[in-house]
Design a protein that fits this description.
The chain is mainly beta. It has 6 helices and 48 strands. It folds into 4 domains: about 150 residues, Sandwich (Immunoglobulin-like); about 170 residues, Immunoglobulin-like (Sandwich); about 190 residues, Immunoglobulin-like (Sandwich), CATH 2.60.40.1730; about 110 residues, Immunoglobulins (Immunoglobulin-like, Sandwich). Strands 1, 2, 3, 4, 5, 6, 8, 10 and 11 form a 9-stranded mixed beta sheet that branches. Strands 30-29-33-27-26-36-47-38 form an 8-stranded mixed beta sheet. Strands 16-19-14-13-21-24-23 form a 7-stranded mixed beta sheet.
C-alpha cells in the first residue's frame, strides 16, 4: 500500500512540474518495475505468432492508365490503355470509366464485352492474372464564345497520364484537377502532357479566337444495347425488343433498326418516340428532343409458326458505334426447346439475365445469350423445339404401398415399405420420417440406391442415369425407429412416414411379439377384419399374388378387381360346394350369334374376367381338373351394363359335365348367393399368421441389413388398410398387456 501511495505522489509531483513548465516531463532512463501479472501478459503477447492473411486486401488493382486523345471538330476522340492485375481466383468485375465514354474495348487483340453497372463501364475478367485493356474513347466537346471545354472521366489507377492534341499553336490549355508536365507546338497543333487525379473527372478547357458556329450538322455517334425476349407459343413466335440508345455526339432525329424476315410489328412505345415508319425490312423511329442524350424503345413483333424450328437473325440499329445485348428464350406450355447460337452470340446463365428483360417473361425460361456485335461475324440464333400435349397427370403416383413392420419387445420397430410406382419425371421421393427414425437401405427397380438427406427430410432417388421407365416399377426402402420399450401393460402407437406422392391403397401388416396381447386398435388405418368379406378377399388375394410373383411361383390373371368391371367386360368368382375358392379354373365365354370365343383362367382368389365382349346371347362354361364342368347357356349380356357371373363347382363323381339353361335374373340371384356363402379364410385380427412379407423381412434382418436387430420369431400379424394417402402420416394405436 505504501508503494502505490509513493508512486501516486511522484506522478502528482511530475504533473505539477509539467504544468509549471508548460510541457510534459520526460521519464528518466533506467529500469521499469511492473507487477508480475503485467510482465507475464507482455511475455505472452510477444510470444504469439504473427497472423498472416492469405486473402489479398483487394481483389484487383489498375496499376497504370495512359490516355492519348485528340480534339476533332466537335468531339474528343482517342485511345486509352489500362494495365493491372487480378489477385483472386474466379471472375472479377473491374470498373474502368463512367459511361458512355467507351466506344469499343479489347484485350490481347480480342473484343472485350463490357457491361454498365452503377454508371460505370465494367469489364469482367478471370484471375489471378495480369491484364491490359485497350479501349476507344469518345467525349462530346462543348464550344462557346471564345472557349472550348470537355469533361474527361479518369480511370481509378495508380497513375494516370494524359497526352492531348489540340488544334492551334501555343494554345493556352488548363486542367483541373491535374498537373501539366509538358507542352509543345508543331504543325499547327498543341500537345500537352499531364498527370491526372485517378478516379476523378477532370475538366479541360482552352480559349479560342473564333466563335464556333457549325455550318453543317455534327456527325451522329451513339451506342445501343438491345435486350430481346423470344417467346415460342403454340401458334406464334414473338419478339419483345427493349432497346437503350446512348448518344455520344450529334443530335439524331431518327433511328433505323432492321426487322427480321417474316415478322410483323405489333407495337412500339418510347418516351421520346414521336412517330414511326415501316419500310421493307426496316423500322424508322423518329424522336422528339434531338438534344436528348438517351432514348429507350420497346418494340413488339411476331410471326406465325408453321414448323417446329425457326431462324432468328439478330438485327441491330444502323450506324451504331457499338452494339451489345442479351437474348432470353421462353416457351409456352409443355415444350422441349433447343437453341443453337452462332457468331458472337455466347450462352450465359439465366441468373445473369438483365432484370428488366427477365421481368418481361411470362413462361418457363430455357436459355439466355449475350452478344457484342462485330461487323465481320454477325450473331444469329436457331431454335428447334418439341411440344408435348398438355395433360392433367401427376408427376408420380403409387398404385399401392405394401408395408411390413416388425416390433421387438424393447419397442424398436423395423419397417419395410414397398411401392408400385408410376413415374413421369419426379426424381426423388421425399420421406418425412417420424422423430427417431432413419432409412437403412433402399432399392429402385431391383438396384441399390443411396438415400440422401435434404433440408426438409430424407429423399429416396426414383430415377437414375439411363433409367427412364415407361410403366410401373418397384421402389423399396427399410427404416428403423427407436420407439418406446413395452411395459407389462399400457398404450402404444406406431406411425408410418409421410411420402410426397399420392398412394392409391396402403396395406400395412404389423407383426407383434407373441408375449403381448393387444386390443382396441385405433388411428388413421382401418383393420381389415372390419371390412366387408368381399373386400377382404380382394386384399388377401392381392397380397398372395404379390408374394407368388416375388418368388417366381405360379400366378394367373394378375390382379383382378371385379368391383371395377368396365363396359364390355364379364367376370366372377368360382368356388366349390363348401365355399372354398378354386384357382386355375378355365372359363370360356362364347357369343352364340357370332361364335367368337373368349377364355380366362381364375386367379388365386378364384376370380376370372374377360374383355371386349359385344352385347347379345352368350354361353359361359367353367372346367377344372378335379371338379365337374359347368355350362350356363343362353345368357343375354348387355355390354353397357357389365355383369358378374359366379360358379359353384362340384367334386368329380359319376357325372363329368353339368349344363344349365337359366334366365339372367335367376343367374344373378345365384351369383349373389355364391358370394354370400363363399368361405374366404381371413382370420380375425390378433389371430392372423405372418405373411411371406414378414418372413422375408426377418431374413433381411438376419444377414442383409447393416445393423443387428433382435426381432421376434413368433408372434401375431395384424393387418390394416388405408385408401388415398398423400403426404401425411398413417398411425395405429392399441392397448397391450403381457400374457
Amino acid at each position: 500500500m505504501r508503494i502505490y501511495l509513493t508512486i501516486a505522489i511522484l506522478i502528482l509531483s511530475f504533473t505539477t512540474q509539467a504544468q509549471d513548465k508548460g510541457s510534459l516531463p520526460l521519464p528518466a532512463s533506467g529500469n521499469v518495475t511492473l507487477p508480475l501479472d503485467e510482465y507475464n501478459k507482455l511475455i505472452e503477447l510477444a510470444s504469439r505468432p504473427v497472423i498472416k492473411s492469405d486473402v489479398p486486401p483487394v481483389s484487383y488493382a489498375i496499376k497504370r492508365a495512359d490516355l492519348k486523345l485528340r480534339v476533332a471538330s466537335e468531339s474528343v476522340l482517342g485511345r486509352a490503355q489500362c494495365d493491372g492485375e487480378i489477385f483472386v481466383k474466379g471472375t472479377t468485375k473491374i470498373p474502368i470509366v463512367s459511361a458512355p465514354a467507351i466506344l469499343n474495348a479489347s484485350q490481347a487483340g480480342k473484343a472485350l464485352p463490357l457491361e454498365q453497372e452503377g454508371g460505370m463501364q465494367t469489364a469482367i475478367l478471370a484471375g489471378p492474372a495480369e491484364f491490359s485493356i485497350m479501349f476507344d474513347m469518345g467525349i462530346p466537346l462543348s464550344i462557346e464564345a471564345g472557349r472550348a471545354s470537355f469533361n474527361l472521366p479518369v480511370p481509378m489507377a495508380g497513375s494516370t497520364q494524359l497526352s492531348l492534341e489540340i488544334p492551334g499553336e501555343h494554345t493556352n490549355v488548363r486542367i483541373n484537377p491535374g498537373l501539366i508536365t509538358g507542352r509543345s507546338s508543331k504543325s499547327g497543333q498543341t500537345v500537352i502532357e499531364a498527370t491526372l487525379v485517378p478516379g476523378q473527372t477532370t475538366s479541360v478547357w482552352w480559349t479560342t479566337r473564333e466563335i464556333a458556329a457549325p455550318a453543317v450538322p455534327r456527325e451522329v455517334r451513339f451506342l445501343s444495347e438491345v435486350k430481346t425476349l423470344v417467346s415460342v407459343s403454340e401458334a406464334d413466335l414473338k419478339l419483345a425488343v427493349l432497346a437503350d440508345i446512348t448518344v455520344i455526339q450529334g443530335e439524331p432525329a431518327q433511328f433505323r433498326v432492321g426487322i427480321p424476315s417474316g415478322f410483323e410489328i405489333t407495337g412500339i412505345t418510347g418516351a421520346s418516340l414521336e412517330s414511326e415508319e415501316i419500310k421493307t425490312g426496316e423500322l424508322i423511329l423518329k424522336v422528339s428532343g434531338a438534344a436528348r442524350r438517351s432514348h429507350q424503345f420497346l418494340i413488339s413483333m411476331e410471326k406465325p409458326l408453321v414448323d417446329t424450328k425457326a431462324d432468328i437473325p439478330v438485327r441491330g440499329f444502323e450506324s451504331a458505334q457499338r452494339e451489345t445485348g442479351e437474348f432470353l428464350i421462353e416457351g409456352e406450355g409443355s415444350i422441349e426447346l433447343s437453341a443453337t447460337e452462332r457468331g458472337t452470340l455466347k450462352r450465359m446463365d439465366l441468373k445473369e439475365v438483365n432484370a428488366f428483360l427477365r421481368s418481361l417473361a411470362r413462361h418457363p425460361q430455357h436459355a439466355a445469350f449475350r452478344f457484342h456485335r462485330q461487323p465481320s461475324d454477325p450473331p444469329g440464333l436457331a431454335l428447334t423445339w418439341n411440344r408435348f400435349p398438355d395433360s392433367s397427370v401427376l408427376t408420380a403416383s403409387a398404385e399401392r404401398a405394401v408395408i411390413t413392420t416388425l416390433v421387438t419387445s424393447e419397442g424398436r420397430s423395423l419397417t419395410e415399405v414397398k411401392l408400385v410406382l408410376k413415374n413421369q419425371a419426379q426424381p426423388f421421393l421425399k420421406v418425412g420420417l417420424p422423430p427417431g427414425a432413419s432409412i437403412l437401405t433402399a432399392d429402385v427397380a431391383g438396384e441399390k440406391v443411396k438415400p440422401v438427406q435434404g433440408p426438409d427430410g430424407s429423399r429416396v432417388p426414383l430415377l437414375r442415369p439411363g433409367f427412364r421407365p415407361s410403366g410401373s416399377y418397384n421402389v423399396e426402402f427399410v427404416m428403423m425407429h427407436a420407439g418406446t420399450p413395452f411395459a407389462k401393460k399400457g398404450d402404444s402407437e406406431l406411425s408410418l412416414p409421410k411420402m410426397d406422392i399420392p398412394i392409391n391403397l396402403l396395406q400395412w401388416e404389423v407383426f407383434l411379439p407373441e408375449l403381448y396381447k393387444v386390443k382396441d386398435f385405433g388411428g388413421d388405418a382401418i383393420s381389415t377384419n372390419l371390412l366387408p368379406i368381399n373386400t377382404q378377399a380382394i386384399l388377401a388375394s392381392d397380397e398372395e399374388s404379390s408374394a407368388l410373383e416375388q418368388v417366381g411361383a405360379w400366378a394367373v390373371s394378375g390382379n383382378i378387381r371385379l368391383s371395377q368391371l368396365l363396359p364390355g367386360q364379364m367376370g366372377g368368382i368360382i368356388v366349390d360346394a363348401s365355399g372354398g375358392l378354386i384357382p386355375g379354373t378355365e372359363v370360356t365365354v362364347t357369343n352364340i350369334d357370332t361364335g367368337i370365343l373368349h377364355t380366362a383362367v381364375s386367379d388365386a382368389g378364384g376370380r376370372w374376367i374377360v374383355s371386349n365382349l359385344q352385347s347379345g346371347r352368350h354361353k359361359v362354361s367353367a372346367s377344372s381338373p378335379y371338379f365337374q364342368s359347368k355350362t350356363i347357356t343362353d345368357i343375354f349380356y348387355d355390354a353397357n351394363r357389365p355383369s358378374r357371373f359366379n360358379f359353384q363347382l362340384e367334386v368329380k363323381g359319376i357325372e363329368t359335365s353339368v349344363e344349365i339353361s337359366t334366365s339372367a335374373e335367376s343367374l344373378e340371384h345365384d351369383s349373389r348367393r355364391i358370394e354370400r356363402e363363399a368361405k374366404i379364410h381371413i382370420p380375425a385380427v390378433g389371430l392372423n399368421q405372418a405373411s411371406s412379407n414378414v418372413v422375408n423381412l426377418q431374413r433381411r434382418v438376419a444377414g442383409v441389413l447393416p445393423i443387428r436387430v433382435d426381432v421376434p420369431r413368433a408372434g401375431n400379424s395384424y393387418r390394416f388398410v388405408r385408401p388415398l394417402v398423400l403426404d401425411e402420416e398413417t398411425r395405429v394405436t392399441f392397448k397391450y398387456k403381457s400374457k
